[in-house]
Structures are given as structure tokens and as C-alpha cells.
Amino acid sequence: MSQLEDAATNGEVVDLRPPPKPDEITRFYWEAAAEGRLVLQRCDACSRFQYPPELVCTYCQHEGFEPTEVSGQATLYSFALVERAFHAGFVNQVPYVLAMIELAEQPGLRMLTNILDADPEELAIGMELELCFDAIGEQQLPQFRPAKVLR
Ligand SMILES: [Zn+2]
């Protein structure tokens, strides 16, 4: 019996999303997330943050980074309500909000994420968001939700 069929018999919602697969470049990011922290690459040469993790700085091509924790404060840059799963792993997640958010640390520092704990009707471009985490398998996925305390 598949995981999905098993869940159907029990009336539970099973999380079928594929868990992240940390590699040499992203391991620091997932290890920090497991501790409830959002840590990004910060370039040793130009001091800019970047996301997602890359081999070199996307601004100056320098190869050295300091993993640096960010505040988790962000604003909503763009979003869409996903009502049909585009991957079998997300059939139990729809509808969900897919969003591009901009972190407070640096103009243009954006992350693709989901917005949790929100009524899609109440979302607005520019609204304040805060970091939260969503367990996926054994890992923690950094996500965002409307800020509880407005800045
Ligand atoms: Zn740089």
C-alpha cells in the first residue's frame, strides 16, 4: 500500500513533498534551519548577501563567504495562490501561497517561499512578514507568515 493510499484509509493528510537534499554548497543553510535560524551566504569581498547559495558571489564573482544569520524580517514582493499541484508531492498541499519575498537586510535580496498562516485574501504586496519554519521530513524549511508584531 502506498503512503497516499494508507493516508486515505486513516483520513490523515500525509506530507508527500520531497525533502531538501543538502549538498556541499547548501549544507550550512539546512543545518542552520534545523536550529531555527535563517543563515545566508555573505560575500567576504563585497559584503552582499545572496540567496540561493552559490559557488561564487553573483555580484563580484568572489569565492569566499561568511555564513551570516539574517533577521527574518521581510516584505511581500509578489505572490500567487497555487490551486493545482504541479508536482505529485504537492497534491496534499493545495491550495497554497507561493511567494517572492524581500528580506530587510538588503534591497533585492529575495527568496522564493511559501506564506503560511495567512488568508490569501488578506495578503498585499509590501506587507510585513516574519520568518517561520515548516517541518518537512526530518528537516526544517524556512518559510514566512504575516508579521505578528508590526515594525
Ligand atoms: Zn561579492
**Major β-sheet annotation:** 5 strands, antiparallel
Overall body shape: globular
User: What Rg, in angstroms, do the CA atoms define?
Assistant: 17 Å
Estimate nothing, just give the exact number of structural domains.
1
Which secondary-structure class do the elements indicate? mainly beta
Helix and strand pattern: HHEEEEEEEE
Query: Into which percentage range does the β-strand content fall?
Result: 35-45%
Kindly report the average pLDDT value: 92
Placed side by side, the strands forming the largest sheet appear as 6-5-4-7-8
| Total count of strands | 8
Tell me the distance between the termini: 49 Å
Summarize this entry quickly.
11% of the residues lie in helices and 35% in strands. The chain has 151 residues and is mainly beta.
Which short descriptors sum up this protein?
binds zinc ion; 151 residues; 8 strands; five-stranded antiparallel sheet; single chain; 11% helix; 35% strand; three-stranded antiparallel sheet; 2 helices
Question: Can you offer a commentary on this structure?
Answer:
By secondary structure, the protein is mostly beta strands. The protein has one domain. The chain is built from two helices and eight strands, in the order H-H-E-E-E-E-E-E-E-E. The chain has a five-stranded antiparallel beta sheet, with helices on one face. It has a three-stranded antiparallel beta sheet with strand order 2-1-3. The longest helix is centred in the N-terminal third of the chain and has 8 residues, at 3-10. The termini are far apart. The site of zinc ion (ZN) has 8 residues, from loops.
